Amino acid sequence: MKIKYFITPHCSTCHALEPRAKKLAAHYDIPFETVDLAANPEAKGKYLLFSAPALLFLDGEKEMKRFVRNFGLNEVEDFILRFQD
Question: Does the global pTM surpass 0.70?
Fold first, then answer.
């Protein structure tokens, strides 16, 4: 399992949430990658993203779960804990 976190340059929520999401991923030893949608516009089409921030859990390239726009890290951690059980 890995996490891809999608951001845009002018999204203050994206940038505020990023260090906390990285810390959560590190705590559970999950690889974490930040993708800037402005620098990588092809990711919008590949992952069907229409807003940011977006946090996707992937198994290889298969999407397991996505959190988009309005989500909290408590929800994300609950998903991680359910997946690990």
Answer: yes
